[in-house]
Amino acid sequence: MMQKPEALGKFSKSDHIRIAVIGLGYVGLPLAAALGKHYHTVGFDLKLKRVSELNNGYDSTGELETGELKATRMLEFSCDEADLSSCNVFIVAVPTPVDASRNPDLTPLIAASRTIGRHIKRGDIVIYESTVYPGATEEECIPVIETVSGLKYNRDFFAGYSPERINPGDKERPLTKITKVTSGSTPEVAEFVDELYNSIIEAGTYKASSIRVAEASKVIENTQRDVNIALINELSIVFSYLGIDTNEVLDAAATKWNFIRLSPGLVGGHCIGVDPYYLVHKSMAVGHIPDIIRTAREINDGMPRNAVTRLVKAMIERDLSVKRAKVLVVGFTFKENCPDTRNTKVIDLVKNLKSYGMEIDIVDHWADPAEAHNEYGLDTSTTLPETGAYDVVILAVAHGVIVRDGASRLRQIMQPNGVLFDMKAAFPKDQSDLRL
After folding, report:
1. 31 neighbors 216 (Cβ within 8 angstroms)
2. 271 annotated active-site
């Protein structure tokens, strides 16, 4: 039986626990804030600007209000690695993206593991929250910590895995109201990790039997959703050839009690649009080609191109010139009511529009223009123009403020014969000219 880490003492002695949350994005910040109400917590991030904003009570992601940040009396923000040395529980909440070839990019995860390796001590615990394929924690991350620290896994230090379940922009289901899956490298550590999270999660926890099971549970959550959305997207393509409105079909089908209601659209972001590639990678590495998962990704990644093809047909039917057509794209973030533009599929939509020679303007009051320019080389605005004569207006992201103003607000900036492409079916059918 493992010796209880002396640095932690009994779980009830919270003053013995000093936590470092590494990565202060959509996942790490809410977690650090919740932990900071009960434990001495260091929120660590490499970005000086991010740390400065948080120390001034401002969260650019919009997840936490100033009052919520100030309520975390035992939380300090830092980009000084030396502040990690006093910690005995390290929680990793860094991004796990894919590279240009859509292979898992573990660079941020490995870098965080190296950082921990420089500060971890005997008896300490490291917990990973970043989404990975089954086995990544113990096969990729732990060896890095061992190499840098010179310590031995499950003898000198221990590990846990508790996958994040943050839904950016969702104020109804914040961190504390979502059941948390936990796990540990030994039964005793698993119990500690579970108790730690249970102390801040109102919805409770679920202790998985192993780290690999917990890793798998996370990656299939988003893979399942990706596959289901791909089915709806493919149905929308079929129905477009049949001249049937997809959303009217969904309305009818949803009257059955066990029908899962999903909508067609762009599938981006750093979860659903990324995580399935991690499972594909691991599956192929062990000798199985996951056809359904791969095909679902291809369908969803192809929706921007399909949407533009439908738009061009609609323009031709209205005798609108495609080349040099003035197009306004409304919405640039990867989802509604959220400032996150990472892996937004609107960029693919814009590229496909430009391939036809169209002239594109982009408006999104949630997206940071500087971030959009630096990341994608695009100029965006935060306000709709008062007047205009756009040939096409595309509602790509259904932000609440745009939907509340109604389709008539968008038609004000269109020419009379223009096309209002409501990709999100946010408005009634008779108020739109084209829907997915």
Report:
1. no
2. yes
CA distance 429 to 436: 11
The pTM assigned to this predicted structure is 0.90
Angle at 193 between CA 197 and CA 127, to 5 degrees: 100
Angle (CA) 149-155-159 rounded to 5° is 75
Residues with Cβ < 8 Å from 126, sequence gap 6 or more? 89, 90, 91, 92, 113, 116, 120, 145, 157, 158, 159, 160
Tokens representing residue 167 in the block: 């839904």
Q: Which of 79, 87, 141, 271 is catalytic?
A: 271
Q: What share of the chain is helix, strand, coil (3-state, %, to 5)?
A: 40, 15, 45
Q: Supply φ then ψ for residue 389, to 5 degrees.
A: -140, 55
Supply φ then ψ for residue 334, to 5 degrees.
-75, -15
- Distance linking the first and last C-alpha atoms of the chain: 58
Separation CA 232–CA 249 (nearest Å): 11
The DSSP call for residue 2 is: P
In order along its 436 residues, the chain shows pLDDT tens digits of 334 445 444 344 566 899 999 999 999 999 999 999 999 999 999 999 999 999 999 998 888 888 888 777 789 999 999 999 999 999 999 999 999 888 999 999 999 999 999 999 999 999 999 999 999 999 999 999 999 999 999 999 999 999 999 888 778 889 999 999 999 999 999 999 999 999 999 999 999 999 999 999 999 999 999 999 999 999 999 999 999 999 999 999 999 999 999 999 999 888 888 999 999 999 999 999 999 999 999 999 999 999 999 999 999 999 999 999 999 999 999 999 999 998 899 999 999 999 999 999 999 999 999 999 999 999 999 999 988 899 999 999 999 999 999 999 999 999 999 999 999 999 999 999 999 9
